[in-house]
């Protein structure tokens, strides 16, 4: 089999495993979400080897979406880091076999501290599964590894289970983009979520009067260089003229003779208040399949213009 064929087979094996895991979700998942929501402490993730690496990612996702969380290496926990655990915490212990010695050794201490425990295991009847408060089944029919040895499919399902918990918690907490921005202030993502429209909008505006002829409209579009003209009459926005409007007008008529801005424009264009978040403006443009958005102030008067590509300026 070619490498491409092997790659496709891996995707197919893992896709089937994810579908099977989704079909198995039951009340234990809902209980796990409730347990995490109700805890006044943190969610602590612990796993050995590949499970530990997956646990690191799960903890990072939870922490960035409003659920205080961190990961602890089970061996280091057993040699002093147990001091990080409190009775207010929830601990997620990851072991596909459910028999990983370093992970199982934590259970007596968790009971002693009164910590609630959730097991992510491939065998719910394993030592780990039998001794935790809740069990999330991440079993797979087989690994994508041809020898059925290297953790591949099982780690994918475990990671997806962590993502499912995180997304369910996002929904239950009503975690919004502005909340996400608080945890992601750096980089282009943080800037996009924290930036308001008025901080990015273009203020040199291509304004036309309704009676302007097409030569005047084209000159306005060309001089400002935003690929659009805004038709304004006595301070009131009447419409917009884009390059597409010009092409359609020319396609439907032999020439621009006798045409005015009013006759070519698209009326009732989309607008957004200058105090709104840039991320919201971007979503409006993407959903409406437009590349420009007019910005208005509190009085409804035109104050700026946004282009979809302005997101690149936040990078």
How would you describe this structure to a colleague?
By secondary structure, this protein is an alpha/beta fold. The protein folds into two domains: 3-175, 3-Layer(aba) Sandwich (Rossmann fold); 197-314, CBS-domain, CATH 3.10.580. It is built from 15 helices and twelve strands. The protein has a five-stranded parallel sheet with strand order 2-1-3-4-5, sandwiched between helices. Strands 6-7-8-9 form a four-stranded mixed sheet. Strands 10-11-12 form a three-stranded mixed sheet.
Structure at a glance:
This protein has 315 residues and is an alpha/beta fold. It is built from 15 helices and 12 strands. The mean pLDDT is 90.
Features:
2 domains, 12 strands, 315 residues, single chain, alpha/beta, CBS-domain, 4-stranded mixed β-sheet
List the helices and strands and how they pair.
Blueprint: H1 3-24, H2 27-38, E1 43-47, H3 50-64, E2 69-71, H4 74-78, E3 90-95, H5 101-104, H6 107-113, E4 116-121, H7 127-130, E5 134-137, H8 153-173, H9 177-183, H10 187-194, H11 197-200, E6 207-208, H12 214-224, E7 228-233, E8 236-242, H13 243-252, H14 261-264, E9 266-267, E10 271-273, H15 278-288, E11 292-296, E12 302-307
Parallel strand pairs: 1-2, 1-3, 3-4, 4-5, 6-7, 10-11
Antiparallel strand pairs: 7-8, 8-9, 11-12
Question: How many strand units?
Answer: 12
Architecture per CATH nomenclature, i.e. the level-2 architecture of the largest domain: 3-Layer(aba) Sandwich
The fourth-level CATH homologous superfamily of the largest domain is Glucose-6-phosphate isomerase like protein, domain 1
| H/I helix tally | 15
CATH topology of the largest domain: Rossmann fold
> Helix fraction?
40-55%
* Helix-strand string: HHEHEHEHHEHEHHHHEHEEHHEEHEE
């Amino acid at each position: 089999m070619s490498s491409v064929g092997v790659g496709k087979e891996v995707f197919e094996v893992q896709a089937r495993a994810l579908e099977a895991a989704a079909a198995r979700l039951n009340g234990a998942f809902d209980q796990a979400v409730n347990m995490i929501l109700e805890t006044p402490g943190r969610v602590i993730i612990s796993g050995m080897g590949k499970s530990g690496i997956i646990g690191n990612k799960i903890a990072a996702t939870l922490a960035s979406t409003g659920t205080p969380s961190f990961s602890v290496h089970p061996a280091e926990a057993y040699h002093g880091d147990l001091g990080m655990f409190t009775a207010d915490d929830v601990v997620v212990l990851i072991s596909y076999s459910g028999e990983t010695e370093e992970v199982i050794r934590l259970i007596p201490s968790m009971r002693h501290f009164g910590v609630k425990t959730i097991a992510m295991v491939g065998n719910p009847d394993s030592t780990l599964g039998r001794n935790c408060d809740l069990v999330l089944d991440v079993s797979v029919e087989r690994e994508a590894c041809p020898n059925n040895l290297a953790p591949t499919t099982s780690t994918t399902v475990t990671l997806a289970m962590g993502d499912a918990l995180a997304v369910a918690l996002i929904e239950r907490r009503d975690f919004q983009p502005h909340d996400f921005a608080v945890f992601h202030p750096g980089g282009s993502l943080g800037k996009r979520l924290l930036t308001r429209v008025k901080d990015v909008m273009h203020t040199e505006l291509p304004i036309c009067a309704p009676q302007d002829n097409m030569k005047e409209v084209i000159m306005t579009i060309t001089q400002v260089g935003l690929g659009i003209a805004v038709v304004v009459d006595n301070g009131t926005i009447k419409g917009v003229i884009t390059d597409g409007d010009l092409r359609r007008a020319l396609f439907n008529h032999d020439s621009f003779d006798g045409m005015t801005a009013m006759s070519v424009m698209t009326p009732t264009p989309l607008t957004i208040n200058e105090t709104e978040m840039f991320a919201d403006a971007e979503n409006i443009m993407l959903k409406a399949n437009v590349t420009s958005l007019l910005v208005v102030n509190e009085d409804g008067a035109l104050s700026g213009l946004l282009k979809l590509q302005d997101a690149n300026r936040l990078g």
